[in-house]
Structure formats: structure tokens, C-alpha cells
Amino acid sequence: MTQNAAMRGEKIYDMELNITGVTDYGVSMDAILASQEAIPLHGARFDLAVDGRYEGRLAGHAHGVDYLRVRADGRIELDLHVIIETEDGHRIALSGDGQAAPRPGEPVLDIFANVRLSTASKNYAWVNERQIWGVGTASLVTGKVRAEGFMQ
């Protein structure tokens, strides 16, 4: 195991979510991200509906909402709330925060997330005890969010 892999911890999932809807509150997310409109001084709020899959030690269908906020400086604050329905019929609540940063000149966001998992399922009690770090990207062209989760 490389030092970088040891620092990240055990990989427990690969996630791919599709952005299935965007709710805006007075300004379009597309217009802000395309620099067609300035970010308001107080920032802008968007609710992104997501749906997709988790693969790996934690595998199943996922759906939920990211209540994100674009700050005046262009950084994006994440507030993710997802339900993971595992392949063997259990439910795990995922909540996460973190930031996404637009790549200069590219329609891509780099994502860095602090993830918490919780469930009352005995089969997945291990998720309640550990810290999860997520790193990934979001494509503004395809509407796909891809990330990996590492357990400390």
C-alpha cells in the first residue's frame, strides 16, 4: 500500500450519481457557472436532486438532494442528504458537507467531502463508527457526479 493510499484509508465505495433536477432561488446555476451572471454578494442557493449507484463494500441504489450554496468567491459549499438502499435491502442515511471548486476553463468541479453514514441495521453497523472522506468530480456537461469514499 502506498503512503497516499494509507492516508486515505480503506476504499468503501465508488459512487456515480446523476443530477436529475435543479431548483434555483432567483438566479440560474448554469448562468453563474458559465459566468453569464455574477454571483450575488450573499451567494446563491441551489437544490440538486441526485439519483444513482454506489459500488464496492457499500453497494446499492442512492437518491437524495444536495442543498448547495455558491459563495461570492465562487467556491461551492455542499450539504448532501442521500438515502442508500443496499443491494441486500437495508437503508443507510448519508449526510455530507464539503466544497466543490470549479476547474479554470473546464466544465468540471473538483469535490472534497466529509461524509457521515448512519443506520440501525446490524449488518451495516460498521458505517456508524467511522469517518468517511469523499473525493471526486462533477461534470457540468453530462450532469454526472463521480466520487470515491474512504473510511478512516
Protein model, in words:
The chain has 152 residues and is mainly β. Helix content is 7%, strand content 58%. The protein has two helices and eight strands, in the order αβαβββββββ. The chain has helices at 3-8, 29-33, and strands at 10-24, 44-55, 60-70, 76-86, 91-102, 108-118, 132-139, 144-151. Strands 1-2-3-4-5-6-7-8 form an eight-stranded antiparallel β-barrel. It is elongated. It starts with a helix and ends with a strand. The model has no long low-confidence stretch (mean pLDDT 92).
SSE diagram, text form:
Layout: H1 3-8, E1 10-24, H2 29-33, E2 44-55, E3 60-70, E4 76-86, E5 91-102, E6 108-118, E7 132-139, E8 144-151
Question: Short summary of the structure?
Answer:
This protein has 152 residues and is mainly β. The longest helix has 6 residues, at 3-8. The chain is 7% helix and 58% strand.
Query: Major β-sheet, in short?
Result: 8 strands, antiparallel, barrel
Count of helical stretches: 2
Q: Which strands sit side by side, in order, in the main sheet? A: 1-2-3-4-5-6-7-8
> What percentage of the residues does DSSP assign to strands (E)?
over 45%
Distance between the termini: 15 Å
Secondary structure: helix percent: under 10%
Number of strands: 8
- The average pLDDT score comes to 92
Order of helices and strands: HEHEEEEEEE
